[in-house]
Amino acid sequence: MLTYAPPPDKSITLRALLLGAVAEGRTVIDNPLFCDDTRAAVACLRRLGIRLRLSARRIIVQGRGLRGLRPPRRALDARGCAALCRMLAGLLAGQAFPSAITGGASLRRRPMERVAEPIRRMGGQVRTCRGGPPIRISPAPLRGIKHRLAIPSAQVKSAVLLAGLYARGTTSVEEPLLSRDHTERLLRHFGAKLLRRGRKWIIRPGELKGRRLRVPGDFSSAAPFLTAALISGRGLRIKGVGVNPTRLGLIRTLRRMGADIQVAPRRGFPEPWGDIRVRPSRLKACAVEAAEIPSLIDEIPLLMVAAASARGRSTIRGAGELRHKESDRIRSALRLLKALGARASCRGGTLEVMGPCAFRGGRVSGFNDHRMAMAATAAGARSSWPVTIADPACVRKSYPGFFADFRKVFG
């Protein structure tokens, strides 16, 4: 059986950096991820007066408390990271100084009004540029609100909860479907006054305390390896990966398709982690409903690759949010599958994939989108000819060593 250990989790590293910055005292992040997105966060925090010490396996953050950030001399550059942009907006809305957040061309296409609107309802002074970055924030007192998300979004939920740390009274965020809960777990770890009632999270203002935590392996980074093993008929053991239930929608769906996947969780706080074993399996088509999308939002291109390798017609409903990622991932995934010789379409908002298909390989675009480049590479494990990515540098956003690791595992 092949073995693989994924890189540390990007989402958890990013959130730990932000919370450590506004906590009192020192935060130690063991096993952090270093990639374009997390390096952008480090650069932004340094411009806000935060001292960070980086080594190969650890980041030490000297927190300055909720009110200790310093005014940046120029706009903070989130580069291509929408999560950083949105969560920074939540933290900066309650500060006593003006600020601005900008980013690269791909980030400027991402919608930011979904964050700005609830912060304005809290009394915040937030302006976007035609709905996107740059975001300009002026100091204003915040008050708690009750906010119900129209679309499940862990990033928007996180931004409102972070703004709630600065608001007078309580702030609640209710989501129509459960999305990933890394921010909530870390807020509790740092001592926030946070309660959960069903799909509603309630936060009260209060200081955070610096903590120590270890970042587990990133499931989204491991997912291309898991998919490649399944569609190529090889066994694989994935070691030390995060197994947060809000991230495992791909595994639940693949099991319905007949995949033999076993998860062996270990105790972990604030995040669970463990090992995942994949055994050769014959896949059959399945239907994915809108309620399942938040738990596999980053893995839908990979699921479409698996569906093209399965017997029958698979359908995926309610995935419209994919149009607002680094690329329009619905359009990108359809173009990718067509280039590989698979049959797929989108009709009335429902994705349809016919299988099985023997991928034909060749040179394909990664659409300047790290998730799409990884999905194309995973498909290459089943192809009769090599799959070459035309724009491989895009994987640096989340997984700089992706191609080297893929070659080590699958040859």
Characterization of the model:
The chain is an alpha/beta fold and 411 residues long. The chain has two domains: 9-214, Enolpyruvate transferase domain (UDP-n-acetylglucosamine1-carboxyvinyl-transferase, Chain), CATH 3.65.10.10; 219-410, Enolpyruvate transferase domain (UDP-n-acetylglucosamine1-carboxyvinyl-transferase, Chain), CATH 3.65.10. The protein has helices at residues 10-21, 36-47, 82-92, 105-108, 113-121, 154-164, 182-189, 219-232, 249-256, 300-308, 329-339, 370-380, 402-410, and strands at 2-4, 24-30, 51-55, 58-64, 76-77, 99-102, 125-129, 132-138, 146-148, 171-174, 193-197, 200-204, 212-214, 236-242, 260-266, 273-279, 287-288, 312-317, 343-347, 350-355, 362-364, 387-389. Strands 1-14-16-15 form a four-stranded mixed β-sheet. The chain has a four-stranded mixed β-sheet with strand order 3-4-2-13, covered by helices on one side. The protein has a four-stranded mixed β-sheet with strand order 5-6-8-7.
Please outline what is shown here.
The protein is an alpha/beta fold. The protein is built from 13 helices and 22 strands.
| Cα radius of gyration in angstroms | 21 Å
- Known CATH architecture of the largest domain: Alpha-beta prism
* E-strand count: 22
Strand order of the largest sheet: 1-14-16-15
Strand content of the residues, in percent?
A: 25-35%
**What are the low-pLDDT stretches, counting only 5+ consecutive residues below 50?**
none
- Shape designation: globular
As for the number of domains, it is: 2
Biggest sheet record: 4 strands, mixed
CATH topology of the largest domain: the name is UDP-n-acetylglucosamine1-carboxyvinyl-transferase, Chain
